[in-house]
Design a protein that fits this description.
77 residues, single chain, mainly alpha, elongated
């Protein structure tokens, strides 16, 4: 079931793709992946749904987070 506010919101929600109103969102979507709204890319916050190669690790937002996690406590702040 799709919440009514998902339909026609400009974001392609794959769980709702068969619903009337959502197909238009998905046809217009230029998103790097269907779960990552363009507004999330490069907004300074690492969004897990955008942290993939297609979305360039959330426009670079997740690169520093991944590097810090890999480096551990000895990394400079």
């Amino acid at each position: 079931p799709c919440p009514a506010y998902f339909l026609g919101d400009g974001i392609c929600d794959l769980a709702c793709i068969s619903c009337v109103g959502e197909a238009a969102d998905c046809a217009q979507a230029q998103q790097c992946n269907p779960y990552c709204p363009d507004s999330y890319i490069g907004d300074g916050e690492c969004d897990d749904v955008c942290n993939d190669a297609a979305c360039d690790n959330d426009g670079g937002d997740c690169v520093d987070v991944a590097m810090a996690a890999a480096c551990g406590p000895e990394c400079p702040a």
